[in-house]
TrEMBL record:
Domain of life from the UniProt record: Archaea
A Pfam family it matches: TusA
Species name: Natrinema halophilum
Identification of the protein by name: Sulfurtransferase TusA family protein
Family per similarity comment: Belongs to the sulfur carrier protein TusA family.
Record domain UPF0033: where: 9-79
Amino acid sequence: MSSEYTVSETLDVKGQSCPMPIVKTKQAIDDLEATEVLEVIATDSGSMSDIDGWATGTDGVELLEQVEDGDVYKHYVQKTS
């Protein structure tokens, strides 16, 4: 994980498949303040492209980093507005 940001909240969606990681990520981001960072921990390999695509097409969020750690995928999403 990068030291350029601090995680404000962690969302554990391990064991859940599409579309739930995206649905729960959006709900969690809505509850954050601007500049806060959400860490999403998933086991669905599709979450890598799903969260990237969602963040790219969604105003007010930025995907900072994605990390693949074995069977676990970590996504760091910042609320920008």
